[in-house]
Amino acid sequence: LVQILVNLIGNSIKFTDEGRVDVCAEPLPENPDMVRLTVVDTGIGVPDAEKERVFDAFYQVDGSATREHEGTGLGLSLVRRLVDAHAGRVRVEDYEPKGAVFVVTLPCRRTTIA
After folding, report:
1. pTM check: above 0.70
2. 58-91: b (≥16 Cβ within 10 Å) or e
3. For residue 58, how far is the Cα from the chain centroid?
4. pLDDT at residue number 65
5. How far is the CA of 95 from the CAs of 70, 71, 79, in angstroms?
6. Residues 81, 55: contact at Cβ < 8 Å?
7. Distances (CA, A) of 34 to 8, 27, 102
8. Which among 29, 28, 33, 25 has a CA at the least distance from the CA of 102?
9. 3-class state of residue 114 by DSSP
């Protein structure tokens, strides 16, 4: 869970020159056995055509030699693998007027400590 948040928050900070990054965790109203994590930024956003590909290993929206932001293209791929390993889902949505919303839903296990 920590690695998922580190990667999503770090990615949002990297692509938000001005503005803000918000993080929220809440139970799903329709299913209290699931938790929703959202990372919302007012950065450059993700084009519609790239929304699924950003989770591919080594993929970067700006793959040019002169790209402004550095990275390997592994952060979001790792997020997808970790979320999948925990039987969850991850997606990216638009945040208007600009930016991105990364949404992770995960099963929530309740335990009691004796």
Report:
1. yes
2. eebbeeeeeeeeeeeeebbbebbebbeeeebebe
3. 16
4. 38
5. 23, 23, 20
6. no
7. 19, 6, 16
8. 25
9. coil
The pLDDT tens digits for 21-58 are 999 999 999 998 999 999 999 999 998 888 888 888 77
Model confidence over 57-82: pLDDT tens digits?
A: 776 755 433 345 555 568 899 999 99
Q: Which residue from 109, 106, 108 is spatially nearest to 88, judged by alpha carbons?
A: 106
Mean pLDDT of 6-34: 94
Q: With 0-12 CB in 10 A as exposed, 13-18 as middle and 19+ as buried, what is 56?
A: middle
114 vs 4, 108, 110, CA distance in Å?
A: 29, 19, 13
Q: Are 90 and 55 in contact (CB under 8 A)?
A: yes
Look up residue 96 and give its amino acid.
E
Q: Which tokens go with 52?
A: 């699924």
